[in-house]
Write a structure and sequence with these properties.
The chain has 1 helix and 9 strands, in the order βββββββαββ. The chain has about 100 residues and is mainly β. The strands form 2 sheets. It has a 5-stranded mixed beta sheet, with no helix packed on it. The longest helix has 4 residues, at about 75-80.
Length: about 100
C-alpha cells in the first residue's frame, strides 16, 4: 500500500489504520482487496471526504490519496508530507 496525501488547512482529525488492503478512516472501514492490478476506482465511488484521489493498484501495491487536515501550527512534515510506503498493519502514523 502507498498512501499519498493532499494537505489542507483544516482543524478536524484524521485517524488511519490498515490491515492488508482494508483501510479504516476515522472508524469507517473501506475494503479495497478486490481492486485488481491496473484497475482504477474513482474517488467519487468511495463515500468518504478524506479519499480525494482515484484508487489504483500498480505492481501489486494499492495506491490512494487522502486529504490530510493540517492545523494552524502544522509542521513542514504535515504541510509537505512524504508518501507512506508499505505501512505495517495497525494504526498509521500521520505527519503532524
Amino acid at each position: 500500500m502507498i498512501i499519498k496525501f493532499s494537505p489542507q488547512r483544516r482543524d478536524d482529525v484524521l485517524k488511519v489504520s490498515k490491515r492488508g488492503d482494508v483501510i479504516t478512516l476515522n472508524g469507517e472501514r473501506f475494503d479495497f482487496r478486490e481492486i485488481p492490478e491496473g484497475a482504477l476506482l474513482p474517488s467519487s465511488a468511495v463515500d468518504c471526504e478524506f479519499v480525494i484521489g482515484d484508487i489504483t493498484r500498480k505492481n501489486g501495491d494499492l495506491i490512494l490519496t487522502l486529504l490530510l487536515p493540517c492545523g494552524q501550527g502544522a509542521t513542514a512534515a504535515a504541510n509537505f508530507p512524504a508518501d507512506i510506503v508499505s505501512p505495517p498493519d495497525g494504526n498509521v502514523s500521520l505527519p503532524q
